[in-house]
Amino acid sequence: MTCLHVSDVSLSLGGRQILRSVTMPVERGTVVGLIGPNGAGKSSLLRVLAGLKAPDTGRLQLDEQNLASAPAHWRARQIAFMPQEVVRPPPMSVRHVAALGRLAHGESGSVAFHHPKVTQALEKTGLLQSADRPANRLSGGELARLALCRMLCVDAPILLADEPVAALDPAHALMVMSLFQQAAHQDGKAVVVVLHDLALAARFCDQLVLMQNGAVRAHGVPEDVLAEPLVRDVYQVTTRRIGTIPVPWDLCP
Amino acid sequence: MITGQQGRGLSFYLAACVGVLFVVSLWHGESSIAGMQALQDVLAGRSTAGTIILEQLRLPRALLGILVGGVLGLSGATLQGYMRNPLADPGILGVSGGAALGAVCVFYTGLMQVSLVALPLGGLIGAFAAVALLMLLVGDGGVLVLLLAGAALSGFTAALTALTLNLVPSPYASFEIMHWLMGSLTDRTFTDVAICLPGAVLGVALMLTTGRALDALTLGEDVATSMGFVLTGWRGVQMRVVLGTALAVGSCVAVSGAIGFVGLVVPHVLRGLTGYQPSRLLWPSFWGGAALLLVADNVVRLTASGPELQLGVLTALVGSPVFFHRVLKLRKDGV
């Protein structure tokens, strides 16, 4: 069932067209991967979805609600966002940082701190044991998990993440991606993730949206979108397949 | 681990300290009046030398100590939380500079001779003019625009203050100006409290509404926005932070002169005790600032036999070593 409709969204910044008539449906219970070369408009699209940028034209609709006219606090409870660069938090405890996610519900202090969703999210992300540790001492991988944990604490039906695994080692990248997959497949959330790693995109995403020059070039299941000619044309690289997964191999001549 | 209850406990503890220091400030001063006798006289409605000193000198001075110290501490905590920079202090907005310039103009034009109220009123007008200019400059801009606008305003008001000092005809007036700029609560009256109070109360109220947004901002501006907080624009968090600190600090500096380091040091010292959560630092910083200023003002009065030490000089003398200590600690921790 489609829950987030993006129709005909365009955006220009400083006279440059960033997004051109982007249309895509996002269904509940699926992980949608936004892929494409640098400067294709993936992050800008995500920022528009997160409400950080208002599109010039087009329509964003969540179920029956038009997002442009929705109050900010309502929107905050429906859509949780994880930016590309996770800010290193002050030396608060891990649990305190996670509980900040409850601010989207207007909850703070001990109500947020002891909220069952916070404990649940800490458990899911494997941070329950570290709940009392100072968050500024976490490693990069743990910080990414904490950012994800904070996002799960919002308990929003839609999760948006901008390159959540860009700075992570393979083990942490797999862990974070499988947590997104779990959120979609087990908890029925709609997840939109910007990814550069085509192997992770093929492995964890149910749908892929391939962007080029601000427009959607292809949209569908990973097998179709990651077909050799399309990848070659958009990324200007050749690929080899390891099993069903395409691996960028060489620059196009 | 610090819980919300412990954060509130710290506020109560500091508020109790302020209460004790307030009583000490009423009891202790240059002239040795019998405190209990004066209090009985006040309650009985008698007018004696003791009641005049208590009611018209020490009471407004102690009240201003709480107000000015509290406002400086709270403003420091709010600005440091908003800018996510532990070195932000109320002076960076340029509003204190505006208040100083307003007051210095009163000295220069000789309006001081017309009425005693002219000086704090001049400071207040200078502060509010600076607030208005700051708002116009910042508009919809973000933190960087705010910092630049504050720096520009500080520099400009400092230059105009220096120009006034340069042009002032009598060396006596120049000495008076220098003295005032160092900050003091000596000989302030209830008129000063009345001038300072509206802006200070409104400013404090505005700053206290920003706690949750400051917490959200520890995760970065994008995450805070995605969690439903409007940051810029006329109804945004930045407007409440800037208007709140500017109104409160401007009103206070107008009556007390520039008192440095309270806004910088108090939140810095208390931050660790509040679990580093900006919202929990607000009230403790208010009471901590008030306590520090009352202590400093009492110390100033202890030294009253010689040339009186100015309050701003003392807070700077106490404040800087705290920073030296922090620097050494940071180096030791290998940060």
Automatic annotation (TrEMBL), chain A:
Keywords: ATP-binding, Nucleotide-binding, Translocase, Transport. Residues 4-238 form the ABC transporter domain. Pfam families: ABC_tran (PF00005). SUPFAM superfamilies: P-loop containing nucleoside triphosphate hydrolases. CDD domains: ABC_Iron-Siderophores_B12_Hemin. It comes from the Bacteria. This is Ferrichrome ABC transporter ATP-binding protein.
UniProtKB/TrEMBL annotation, chain B:
The chain crosses the membrane at residues 12-29, 62-79, 91-109, 116-138, 144-168, 189-208, 241-269, 281-303, 309-328. It comes from the Bacteria. Keywords: Cell membrane, Membrane, Transmembrane, Transmembrane helix, Transport. Belongs to the binding-protein-dependent transport system permease family. FecCD subfamily. This is Ferrichrome ABC transporter permease. Coiled coil: none annotated. It is found in: Cell membrane. It is a multi-pass membrane protein.
